[in-house]
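Hi all, posting the design record for the shared folder.

TITLE: backbone redesign
STEP: 1 of 1
STRUCTURE INPUT:
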């Protein structure tokens, strides 16, 4: 079959633009951050409570560490993805071109803004 699988509006491209991909990027980074943070929180919780016997207080402390770290990492990576996507969309609309220079510029600007806040 040589026909298209999807019906596209006249003049529309077959690939997703940077704006459409931004939603996937932001959501994916939030989910990845939450998963990584939860695993890190579990590691830290087990390390901090290693001298405690298995009981409800220990379980609650570990669970608190998991949720706290999960939220922290999800917010951090989601914010970075939001900045990267916003810079990418603005640069693409400003330049009127879709190329690798947009990606490099968006990544550079995101890194510069992130480091300018004094974070390591």
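Okay, here is what came back for every position:
SEQUENCE:
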């Amino acid at each position: 079959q040589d026909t298209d699988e999807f019906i596209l509006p006249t003049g529309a491209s077959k690939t997703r633009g940077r704006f459409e991909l931004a939603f996937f990027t932001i959501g994916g980074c939030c989910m990845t951050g939450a998963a990584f943070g939860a695993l890190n929180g579990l590691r830290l919780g087990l390390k901090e409570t290693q001298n405690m016997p298995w009981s409800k207080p220990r379980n609650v402390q570990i669970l608190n560490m998991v949720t706290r770290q999960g939220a922290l990492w999800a917010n951090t990576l989601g914010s970075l993805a939001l900045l990267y996507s916003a810079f990418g969309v603005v640069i693409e609309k400003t330049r009127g071109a879709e190329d690798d220079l947009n990606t490099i510029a968006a990544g550079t600007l995101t890194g510069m803004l992130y480091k300018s806040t004094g974070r390591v």
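COMMENT: The chain has a mean pLDDT of 86.
Let me know if anyone wants the other runs.
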